[in-house]
Amino acid sequence: MISRLDQKTTNTLYSHFARELASAGFSGDIELGYADRTVLATDNSIYQVLPEGVLYPRSTADISRILTLANKPAFHQIVVSPRGGGTGTNGQSLTSGFMVDTSRYMHQVLEINTRERWARVQSGVVKDYLNELAAKEGLFFAPELSTSNRATVGGMVNTDASGQGSVVYGKTRHHVLELTSVLADGTVWNSSPVDNDQLEQLCQRQDRIGEIYNTLKKTHREHQQQVSDVFPHLNRNLTGYDLANIVNKDNQHDLNAILCGSEGTLAIISEIKVNLLPIPKHSALVLVFYKSFQDSLQDAQTLMSAVPDSIETIDSRVLGLAKADSVWENVKDFFPGQSDDIDGINFVEFTGDNETEIQQGIDRLTAVLEEPVSIWRAGHSVVKGTGNVKKIWNMRKQAVGLLGNMKGDARPIPFVEDVAVPPENLADFIQAFRALLDSHHLSYGMFGHVDAGVLHVRPAIDMKDPEQEKLVRLISDDVAALARSYGGVLWGEHGKGIRSEYAPDFFAELYPVLQEIKGVFDPYNQLNPGKIATPATEPVQLLKIDEVPTRGQQDREIERNAFAAFTSSLYCNGNGACFNYNPNSAMCPTWKATYDRTQSPKGRSGLVREWLRLQTAAGADIAGESHKIRQAGPLYNGGQKLINLVNKWRGEEDFSHQVYGALDNCMSCKSCAGQCPIQVNVPDLRSRYFELYHGRYPRPVKHHVAGLLEPMLPVLARIKPAYNLVMGWSVANTLASKTIGLQDIPAITSSSPVNDCCRAGAAIANRTLLDAIPDSERDKTVIIIQDAFTSFFETPLLTDLVELLIRLGYRPLIAPYRPNGKVLHVYGFLGRFEKIARTNGEELKALADTGISLVGIDAAVTLTYRDEYREVMGDRSPEVLLLSEWFAKQSETIRQLQLNLASTALSNKSEDFVLLGHCTEISNVPAAPAQWQQLFSDLGLKLTYKATGCCGMAGIYGHETRNQETSRKLYDMSWKEVVQNPEHSGRLVATGYSCRSQVKRYGDGKIPHPVQALLQVMKQQAVN
Question: The pTM is what?
């Protein structure tokens, strides 16, 4: 039995502060729970630092309340650190004090001024969300970064972020017009560039503001020449305390030059006014291929002579990982069919307001490419159209996460990844950098901004190995020195964070100036201490890269077999792709609905990692316990479970409850498994955890009821009238909701789905029949694998598929109904699931071995055969195709039928059908929409794919009573507008049973499956 786990409670001083803060009128959330703190202990760096608590302010006034209270002498030991999207690669926001997270509530775009081209936003607003709204006015916020769909504008300001296109558009500070900041004493200050008269007035003030501006004025006057000598003249200049730009080109003193990139060490940013630029109307990319990555670097300066907007690069390792990811489906046509020998690619972008400008840029580059050079280019391709260009850039953005998906314990990690050197020195610098890594026998991946002289290099290190961990220090020291020798800096893009220890050496005589600035802003060293600079008046040092706790140190405490049992979900590197703000993205629904980071793949993975560590420390044998549970069955530890349940009711604490709470709300949609670059599989994590948790605590009734559903449906179907009468009775629905925790159970649609299929023209698949089918007819025969949802709750779809196949000239066979076991896996009945998977899998494998294709209708169930069944059966698992996959293989045959259905398709011939995909299907088989479109095209019809997020049903999830609010919220967030759009009336089709059920429940109507829409058109044509 797993152990009961005590929790680390918040420090007494911090608990007292939290109570005082609540009494002071703080209107946000104060979270001191161990789970809430654990999920924010990591970012995208190698470090793990447990905060004492997390504060979620709702306004600037709330932030002021925090810092005003912290400024009282009794609380001078309290430290705070701001946090936005949590995507930093150097521990910038990590703290052992209070974390101030503005992303939960302070995420509003307050104003967009189209005429003057600026926007005012709260610091927690996501960059892509701002651009989504600005795009409606033809404008955009220019600084680009790979994490733009979850990174906040406040975080961008704190790190002075930049990325692709910085040669043209610069860094974040170049676009900041005004900042609203809260200083360490609680003062709220709105800063913008000031002229000399305004500066003198500010310097006369007898408060913190006066001190700051006097220091600003003094710093520029006394150290201007030193700054010019020390600060490198690079596109990616130093981030943080930008002394070189205290006075701007208009001869104004700009406090924001100091605040941008200060990483929350000087103030907490609450609002930002940024300038917006017109969106280029056209864009194109030229992909230049190389057999040697070094050649791609050396060629960059030559390509720059064509004056492109940007040049990005990736190496063969990133390319190979992209090919194995779902992102490849959208971009594969732009790359050579045989690209295995490609070692480097340069992405050269041109933008403009008309196609002539774009073509002129391409022509300039083409002329450059035709000139003789000593390097070996392996060809190039041109990608035109803004939509296509976005697909390529999306793949490039995924590079950060993709590298984390390398196999094995050694994974590429960020700690020396953003060195900036003069672009003309980049190739030689990288050659020396690679030699350094090769000397340590390390593999690595590389990508980045060759036009700006920045290449992201991530060495693969197993941080669980103490000996390999030492390489972080050795390599960091060597790379810092190497960067200096090539005229560059160690921190060119991603901030200093915990790497600030190199600042005193780099700034030399200027470091005391940074200390003076820190001291005047934050005299008690309470704001994100240990980073960038420390006040000279405080006896504290900067953090050391090898003295801050790392995730690897935590992970090495997990027993090896326990780690292996949960390995599909423990390699999360914190890239935060699951925090995608976009409601029309499938990942992650519960995060989007709650803005609670415990309700995200990253949060859930982090909680289970910590739980496994604590269980190991308590002496639990995780792998052994799992084996015992599967062997013993439902009565395992029955008596002790009841005792534990009573203790739980009495308030006995157990960290396992908090972990369970985070996982219990997972929808098991598997969008994380498909869309996360690391392919963190939370549904698998959830199932394994549930199995162990319920080895100590009893299961709720709904688990047992749901687990019996599949095997009981054939029995219930025989009493269909009575079942439907009871289930349709509102009193029964209420009773089930109150007692079992399930509601809105669908009606059974057939007493015998197999008989209905036979009446529609199918035959029952058995070995005798299959053996009798001639080889010449096997390609025109298909076996339909039943699933519980379609067969018993939507039988007309099953019979419609049979009829459609017959009309297309195929011979449909129906496999006898067998439970698939998916619901058992969802709830962690893994022993029972294994038995069903082996039995059902062997039967299906026997059918598949006849050479006749097996197809499933519902994607969520069908994909179980290639994922969960494969884990049980290995290579013996049956191949069951999705309908879209099977139809794609039949494309040529169907096209030869020359069935032009367009003339009878819709009342308005100019319209087309609109496909709404199932999130599990779209995330894990990204080719599915294109496959459905191909089928419709083969039949003379047009199908448009409309991207949507989760509908909120997700199988059994939407029927659980406690999930109703979240289920409805998710439907309203993404599906409601699409379904209710009058232009979509009669045109929508949806592949997911859950999705169609949710529309029926909340949308006051029905949406057919694509198969049903096609059949209806064919029937209309036959009548006409």
Answer: 0.93
